[in-house]
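The records we work with from here on pair a chain with its fold. These numbers are not coordinates but entries in a learned vocabulary of local backbone shapes. To see the layout at work, look at the sequence and tokens printed below:
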Amino acid sequence: MKDYEQLYYDELYENRKLKNKIKELENEIQEINICRTKRNIDLQKYILLQIQKIK
């Protein structure tokens, strides 16, 4: 059985990973919203944003 200190650090690590994932998803949602018109997503604009992010 793991000791409590190790469990604590494991959970801190998991929380950090989840927070980073949340930030990534929030950024992606924001990028999608930037590319939206009223009801549709401008895929060309979204793809260009994605390409810029890779560069």
About this structure: The longest helix spans residues 4-34. The two ends are 46 Å apart (CA to CA).
